[in-house]
Amino acid sequence: MDSIDLRIKEKRSKYFIPLLIGAIWNIFFGSLGFFNLQLSNSLFFNLITPEAKIIANKTWWFVVIMAGIGYGIVAFANHKYRFLVTIGAIGKMAFFFFVIYLWMGLIATDFAATVVFGDFVWAIYFFFFIFSTREYGYL
Question: Is residue 69 part of a domain?
Answer without folding.
Answer: yes
